[in-house]
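Predict both folds.
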Amino acid sequence: MAAPRSIADLLFWPVVAGGAASLWLGRPALAVTVLVVTAVLTHRLGRGRRFRRRVRRLVEPHRGTLALRRRQETYVDPYDNLILDGWLRERDYFVARTLRPRLEAEGYGDLAEARREEILALVEAASLAEAHEEADALPEDGIAYERFCAALLERAGWQARATRAAGDQGADVIAEWDGLRLVVQCKRYAKPVGNAAVQEVVAARSYWNADRAAVVSNAGFTPAARKLAGATGVLLLHHDDLGSLRPRR
């Protein structure tokens, strides 16, 4: 894609042509030239504002998803540090795969590169603008969290029940919908869930003769957990995802 023309390039021919015309036609031609130059400058100098508005419009439809992903990929470590590494990777991915291609296609490629920090700030603001239930409102107890997840599945249309703590073989919730069985392991953690949870729910899927398996958490998941889940067909979900979860074989 060709680079946008500089202001000097845009003004060169209007000034040259207007100056020549002014020599022959006098003040009327000079007035027209001034109007043309003013219009070009106004349009070009307003490009930054149009760029900002366009970024906001592109971000807006994804605001809810960005807020959810921020919650999923953010946690507090044992030293009370807020860890944003996963969210920052997610934010960069969204900009690179969703925003940049659209902005470049619309002729804003140069501004997308030069004003990257501004784009990131707009995405950050969108991720924080969506109101969500505070983590402190979640059940603190692990068993209560399992029942909380089962209730969310019930409201979404599943027939769900929390299993007994003993003998569940890695399944905290069993849910069924139109003959499809889903086993769920629920993790109320203060840090990303590791691949041990994925291993356990894979075993539970076999034990309970289930069609699908999922690990649900209020926190994110480690890269190792994501890799193993991808290889074994396990769903990794935030509890906010349960309200829209539908059967899929």
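Second protein follows, with its predicted structure tokens after the sequence.
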Amino acid sequence: MTGARADGGVPDPAEDGESISRLLRAWRMRVDARTVPELRGVHPRPGRLLSQRHVARLTGVSEGWYRALEAGRRQDFSESFLLRVAAALRLSEAETLTLFLAVCGRRPPGSPCPAGELPQGVRNLLVQQTSYPAYLSDNAWNIVASNHLMGEWFPWVLRPGANLMRWALLHPEAREQMLDWEDSCARVYLAMLRVAANSNPGDGGLRALVREVLDSDADCRRIWAEEHDVVEHRDGHVFRLRLPYHDRAEIRVTSHVLLPIQRPDLRFVFITPLPD
């Protein structure tokens, strides 16, 4: 139970969990127990107040276990339990995020926002980027959208089913256009695939992509077996390119990787040339 410190000061919410305790109580109190189907037939019949005992019943734990959560006491609360609490208290996406961050310091499992059409703001930002090539890709590096300049520099993004990893690691033109292909491209991209494959073990699409790359190319298999490096993203990575768009003159570029707050399941990447 929280309260004033012995010295008369106000308790630190970060230390004793007072903040999440107060929020949990408020969220519970706003739920009318009479509207919860799972509590129909419970004796004694619940009134309007949703009690801690009711929430414990709805989430399949003891009343003491739920009480520990609401009191802000540190326990080994599982993600599945916190998700059941969120459902029982009818929490919004932002409220569920707050619960997870306060209790275990991480986001809820799964995508933080549903996939679907691109938010208009993100689409506008991409289209209106006229100075540099830019594109959006998903977690498996499928090209979701690209601007006009990206299509001119890299026409492969306009092909059906365009995928950065398939093009960069498996397409012959990538080895002509990306100089120092093995060291500057293949080793970096395979290190990124290694991170993705281990961070999303349940993603069948990612597993299939890794398998396709390794099954299709002997160089990639050799590098995969030799290397143990891991790379999360290519932000700030420098490439040397020789593209038809630039009459095959060598240029140096760097990539910038951003996560749109409305669709953090996507990567917003734009490419800027470096001075000679």
